[in-house]
Amino acid sequence: MSEVIPFYSLQHLHAALRDDMLAAMTRVYDAGSYVLGPEVACFEQEYSAFNQTAHTIGVGNGLEALTLALRALGIGPGDEVLVPSNTYIATWLAVSHVGATPIPVEPDITTSNLDPQRLLAALTPRTRAIVPVHLYGQPCQMPEIMAFAQQHQLWVVEDNAQAQGASFAGQLTGSFGHANATSFYPTKNLGALGDAGAITTNDKALAQRLLRLRNYGSPYKNYHELPGYNSRLDELQAALLRVKLRQLATVTQQRRQLAAWYHTYLGGVAGLRLPAVAAGAMPVWHLYVVHLAQRDALQQYLANLSIATLVHYPVAPHRQPAYSPPAGRAGYHLPIADQLAATCLSLPLWPGMTEKQVAAVAAAIRHF
Q1: Using CA atoms, how far apart are residues 175 and 162, in angstroms rounded to an integer?
Q2: Could you give the CA distance from residue 323 to residue 331 in angstroms, rounded to a whole number?
Q3: Quick one: which H or E segment has residue 333?
Q4: Which of 130, 301, 331, 348 has the fewest CB atoms below 10 angstroms from its CB?
Q5: Domains of the chain and any CATH numbers
Q6: Are the C-beta atoms of 75 and 101 separated by less than 8 Å?
Q7: Residue 86: what are its φ and ψ, rounded to 5°?
Q8: In 3-state terms, what secondary structure has residue 332?
Q9: How many of the other CB atoms lie within 10 Å of CB of 124?
Q10: CB 70 within 8 A of CB 94
Q11: Which residues contact 218 (CB under 8 A, 6 or more apart)?
Q12: Quick count: other Cβ atoms within 10 Å of Cβ 19?
């Protein structure tokens, strides 16, 4: 019988952190301060130091981080925002939630990331912002994107949910844009034990606006300057994230080693396209995604061998009912996004996974 290899497991990481995580929970329980208390404030300072940004604003989750970032920048009805055609739907939803229109831009097929060379063709007089997504932990070509944004006076909001610690040309993702959103969903590289998110920025005035927006538009109790939201990073999740943040460098190195093993063991397999890394990019391998025409057959074959895989993402945003075109209007023509959705397969990769397990996955793929 084959060894069961899960797609993802927190068992190894959480076993090592158990005592520290329980101590953090006890600290919050005993402190009696449960909303926007000292743990949130400390985590925001520590994450800013990690991400080399001046300000971090903790919020409820990654979608709300994107939404509040766009709202704080004044994006709203009548505006257009350039987004990747292939991404998790939250990227598009955030644009819709502020009343703006997401305008999809096709990716570079080799990296699956937004292609800067395609931005100009999508530009209109209503374009106000770009939301590049560092998909699978692969950093986008941010210097080129930022130069384009500056040339055309556009805001940039990085979607850094899958890429904490990644860099391009030596600069960390989440530090390029005017306001940048991240998620701490449990399976992220830096994951809480529930929903959590944050926004990073180097703009002090923008940070102050975001602090108000996340808390009912209020600078202090019972006084409301803005029509704000209730989207606050939970005090308990902040305490747990402080523990995990101290281990993130070690976890990232493990992920890079696992990706290197996959590269070695899967090299030269006919019909299988491995992840490509752009020159200047330093990924953090949130996911290791391969592409092949017989994706569904391979996934079933691996499942029969007790090897779990996932598809990120099987239905591109423009194919979702939420973005169906109005009656009488043509839909989107986004062939690269459709091709990636039909051929992508995410292989198991998690902290504590061994070279033997990577070799077993690769051997099964070679045999297929």
Answers
A1: 14
A2: 9
A3: none
A4: 331
A5: 11-245 (3.40.640.10), 248-367 (3.90.1150.10)
A6: no
A7: -120, 110
A8: coil
A9: 9
A10: yes
A11: 212, 224, 225, 228
A12: 10
Q: What is the pTM of this model?
A: 0.96
Amino acid at 345: L
Contact 283, 310 (CB under 8 A): no
Strand order in the sheet with 171-172: 171-172, 167-168, 281-282
Longest dimension (CA), the chain: 65
Beta strands in the chain (DSSP E): 55-59, 80-84, 101-105, 127-130, 155-156, 167-168, 171-172, 180-183, 197-201, 281-282, 288-291, 344-347
- C-alpha 269: how far from chain center: 29
In order of 106, 301, 305, 310, 344, the CA distances from 2 in angstroms are 40, 13, 6, 19, 24
CA–CA distance, 152 with 309 (Å, rounded to integer): 41
Residue 347's identity, in one-letter code, is: L
Q: Which pLDDT tens digit goes with each residue over 309-337?
A: 999 999 999 999 999 887 667 779 999 99
User: What are 191's two structure tokens?
Assistant: 């994951």
Transcribe 173-192 into DSSP letters.
TTSSSSSEEEE--TTSSS--
SS3 281: strand
Query: Residue 284: which residues within 8 A CB-CB, separation 6 or more?
Result: 137, 163, 164, 165, 166, 189, 252, 255, 256
Contact between 90 and 131 (Cβ < 8 Å): no
